[in-house]
Design goal:
This protein is mostly helical. The chain folds into two domains: 516 residues, no CATH class; 126 residues, Rossmann fold (3-Layer(aba) Sandwich), CATH 3.40.50. 63% of the residues lie in helices and 5% in strands. A four-stranded mixed beta sheet has the order 8-9-11-10. A hairpin with a 2-residue loop joins strand 5 and strand 6. It starts with a helix and ends with a strand.
Length: 677
């Protein structure tokens, strides 16, 4: 089938217009030009590398896999330059240029893998699919950090991953190596910060004229487009036809869960107003109603997790390098796969570990089937070298806090609660279509065993591995994302088969697909609406649905920007501010705390102990409070409504030692006291 150039041009115009509108809603022209150019510079070397590996195959493989490869390798090289002392905007060009040097040796890898050849319908299918990005994230991103006369608002979904990302980028931008933990004095930042470094370099250079939100959201939209193109390319790599591959991706993004339908049914049954879904974390109904492990759909990956997108994607490319190699014995292919999996470990550590386990299961089964022990040792050794290097890098960058066990190997009892019902709610639409596809895969295998191996690894992690201090739910998010990404290919195979059915069966089969799609859509539609709704200030289980920073808060942020060193330690009382303002100081003031309660740092016990100690400053006699503040290295003590409510008379006590803790700023609700040495 030949596509008319006019049709492709029209589709390109529509998609470009939709993305331009999305970008324009999150950033001004100058910031957009700088931010988008920075992202594209990091994508291009990967495109050139994949083009060298797959010459003559057209544009599909380079555009599907190259951007993620470029982002991952660029982040790695940028980190090495940063650790070596490099600073300044030149890094944005230097890291990709160094990555581009790999194009020459990459040519020697040509012919090792079965990668898709570009077909005439690929352009229209992929362009249509890319419209998912502005459709899903356009409105939510347009309302991130909206400023009005009442202050600045952030939807609560963003106070976890998005506000945490703000805090990490602001800390990295200060330039310390290793970056300092803004929640615990004297500690390095125990977090996989590599994928955030590009944003930090951008902000370090452009903070005088570019808002951090603008830079972060530009990156999110760009990486979301990269993810959608990758999922499409993955389906095509396993032989799925263009429109079927696009349909599989669209289905898993738009209709992964029955949770929205269940909530609507439950409200109707109990005569509750259907509008009450605005007060639900809709993609976590399985947790709220049945205390099971919540599974997030891919729409949430698009909302606020570009760092995981890069980690997932480069790891999945590693799996493809194993599964689609042409030679059964190929140590070089496994070295490349190990490099990709190692990058995944360095970028999104736990996800990389899960993907590596899936690769080990896949090749382990193949070795046992063929009893080829020579191949087993050669392949394992080739992959182990880059994986060991990545592990060493993770240890050197101090990603993991050695003050206590982070990962537990034991049965996760939450995974057993109402397992079948929770699974149906969380995976239902995708499970139904994948179950329908299994007979096809059994009789007409397409080499999809790599996804079965990944699913087996996911099942093991789901039931037997737990990341501490995340309410026993952390693994579920990674498991869900990997299963949905894999299901996009399987469902694409099903759609291809349905298209070939006789007419009398085809209509019936597609009617069934439409019914399942309609049953899964409410979750995503409600989630998109709720994520952009910054008018909802109702009470949620962890604070209010919308985080409002008042005009007084904004004055405080501006005061610190102009009057306090970037390395200053600013202390609030973490306990009454938890969980709504847990990142208030690192993410918005842009400074560090002596102690805080970060939701993303494990193990949490040391943060709790330190927070309970430092909050005594607000209750102790003034001289003792001053001595405690000095000992903790605190430069400023902030008293706002939470502190005033929890510590009666705190400002009167501080006022008795003006020579030691003078009041340096005050507005209607917030006072700042400097701790003078």
């Amino acid at each position: 089938m030949t596509m008319r150039p006019q049709a492709v041009s029209a589709a390109l115009l529509v998609v470009a217009s939709a993305f331009l509108a999305t970008f324009a809603a999150v950033a001004g022209p100058a910031v957009l030009a700088f931010g988008l150019l920075s992202q594209l510079i990091f994508l291009l070397p990967g495109v050139l590398i994949v083009r060298a590996v797959a010459p003559g195959g057209g544009w599909l493989a380079p555009l599907a896999f190259g951007p993620l490869l470029g982002q991952a390798l660029g982040s790695f090289v940028l980190t090495l330059l940063w650790v070596a002392g490099g600073r300044g905007p030149w890094l944005i060009a230097a890291a990709p240029l160094l990555v581009a040097l790999l194009v020459l040796p990459a040519r020697r890898l040509a012919g090792r893998w079965r990668l898709p050849f570009t077909e005439p319908t690929d352009a229209i299918a992929l362009l249509a699919l890319l419209l998912l990005v502005p459709l899903v994230v356009g409105l939510p991103f347009a309302h991130v950090g909206d400023i009005s006369a009442d202050g600045q608002d952030y939807r609560a979904y963003f106070t976890a991953d998005y506000v945490w990302r703000r805090a990490v980028v602001l800390e990295l931008a200060k330039g310390d190596v290793l970056p300092i933990n803004p929640y615990f004095t004297g500690d390095p930042l125990h977090y996989y910060w590599m994928p955030h470094l590009l944003s930090a370099v951008q902000y370090r250079f452009a903070n005088a004229w570019a808002a951090l939100d603008e830079l972060l959201l530009i990156r999110s939209v760009a990486i979301d487009a990269v993810l959608i193109a990758f999922l499409y390319g993955m389906g095509r790599t396993f032989g799925v036809r263009p429109w079927s591959a696009a349909g599989g991706v669209a289905f898993v993004v738009l209709a992964s869960s029955f949770e929205g339908l269940y909530a609507l049914y439950d409200f109707s049954r109990n005569n509750a107003p259907l509008a009450a879904v605005k007060g639900l974390n809709i993609d976590a109904v399985s947790r709220w109603y049945f205390q099971g492990i919540p599974i997030d759909g891919l729409q949430r990956l698009l909302f606020y997790q570009p760092h995981h997108v890069v980690g997932y994607g480069i790891g999945m490319i590693g799996l493809i390098a194993i599964a689609r190699r042409i030679r059964p014995f190929d140590a070089i292919a496994f070295a490349i796969a190990g490099l990709c999996l190692g990058l995944s470990v360095a970028i999104s550590s736990f996800a990389g570990l899960m993907l590596t386990a899936g690769a080990a299961v896949y090749e382990g089964v193949a070795v046992l089937r063929d009893l080829d022990w020579r191949r087993a040792f050669a392949h394992a050794g080739a992959a182990a070298i880059p994986l060991a290097a990545a592990t060493g890098l993770v240890l050197a960058l101090r990603y993991v806090d050695n003050s206590g066990s982070v990962v537990e190997l034991a049965v996760n009892r939450m995974a057993l609660r109402d397992f079948w019902w929770v699974t149906l709610l969380s995976f239902g639409p995708v499970l139904i279509l994948c179950a329908a596809a299994i007979p096809l895969l059994w009789t007409q295998p397409r080499g999809l065993g790599i996804f079965a191996a990944l699913a087996a690894a996911c099942v093991f992690f789901y039931f037997f591995v737990n990341v501490r201090d995340h309410q026993d739910v952390y693994v579920g998010w990674r498991v869900g994302h990997f299963l949905f990404m894999s299901a996009a290919v399987v469902i694409g195979v099903l759609f291809e088969h349905l298209h070939k059915l006789a007419a009398k069966y085809r209509s019936l089969a597609w009617s069934g697909v439409v019914i399942v799609l309609a049953a899964g859509l409410p979750t995503t539609v409600i989630d998109i609406y709720n994520t952009q709704d910054i008018t909802n200030f109702g009470q949620a289980p962890s604070g209010r649905w919308t985080l409002r920073l008042t005009p007084d808060d904004l004055q405080v942020f501006d005061w610190f920007k102009h009057n306090a060193a970037p390395s200053a330690i600013v202390q609030i009382d973490p306990v009454p501010r938890d969980p709504e303002h847990w990142a208030y100081v690192p993410a918005f003031v842009g400074r560090r705390m002596a102690a805080g309660l970060p939701i993303s740092m494990v193990p949490l016990a040391k943060y709790q102990e330190a927070s309970n100690e430092v909050r005594a400053i607000y209750d102790e006699p003034p001289l003792l409070a001053y001595e405690r503040a000095v000992k903790a290295g605190i430069n400023y003590v902030l008293v706002g409504l939470p502190e005033r409510g929890a510590h009666d008379g705190v400002e009167q006590r501080f006022a008795t030692v003006p020579q030691l803790m003078p009041l340096v700023f005050k507005n209607g609700t917030i006072s700042i006291y400097e701790v003078r040495r």
